[in-house]
Amino acid sequence: MRSIRHMAVAALAALAALTVLPAVSPWPEAAELPSVEKREKPGTLLFVRTTPSGAEIRLDGKTLGKSDAIFPVEPGTYKIVVDLEGHQPHEQQITVRDGRITRIELTLRRQPGAAAPGAAAAPQIVATTPATGATDVDPATSEITVTFDRDMGRGFSWTGGGPDYPPVPAGKKPFWRDRRTCVLPVKLERGRYYRVGINSTSYRNFRSADGAPVAPSEICFTTRGATEEVKNRLRKPEIVSMTPPNGAKDVDPGLREIRVTFNVSMGGGFSWTGGGPEFPKTPQGKGPSWSKDRKTCVLPVELKPGSNYRLGLNSASHKNFRSEAGIPLEPVVYTFRTRDR
Prior knowledge:
The protein is an all-beta fold. It is 1% helix and 36% strand.
């Protein structure tokens, strides 16, 4: 991917740290926890501490409570899910041994594009030239512009690459026309499809004056003289069918796959979004996949009777459901309920 930048990019990486220790290990910062050794009948307990705290803890799909806390559990091997809004869910297989305290401590990674607590709201795009989706752009056009709803910093991340990214004339570079409008000089050709990104998950230098990054977006258009085949690349993805249907109230809990079919071939990525107890459990070792024509995405699931489910396809910060040409699906909220057995 190519990014034209005015400011240096700082890459931050935070790895989740997981520690599972028996109760006999020293816990200098957790002296308030019960001591198994001092009990006449030692219990089987699970202690979970997260940074930040307040994460929901689920064991094989059952909600135990929120961190930091200690929970009584049965001995066995489980899949633990730790989920906190704005952060990437953490999954791990653990073994809880009889008469011991199993301890887990981890630092949750913030989701790309998620604002930190108390951070300024993300700037919004109010206009672009050409308008995204335009099909008759004059090939003599020499500038692509984006205008925001507030004063911005002086950095930028015009992103993209390959033949769909318009060339920048030699000796020219992006610039800010004023505090709200950024300009990308370009050299276009007749009858072509073009796509230019504004920020991405890796490059986020389009920021407000107070540092809030713009959510990744794009400008897609065709120039005058484009064939219908070329113009069709601008078709927005739309969902033509869902299994189970969106809003269904009597879904068989034995259903093992969610299937979503689009009107166009997709790029092969996906953003199944959401979390918490209403997000369907995915069987261990399985993940989403695409049909050969890349029009149907399949999500393996394990459902429970009499349960409400809620998940999303794309979101404001996650837009990997895209057409082959890079046009993102507008975010969709998907809900259904399984019937009682």
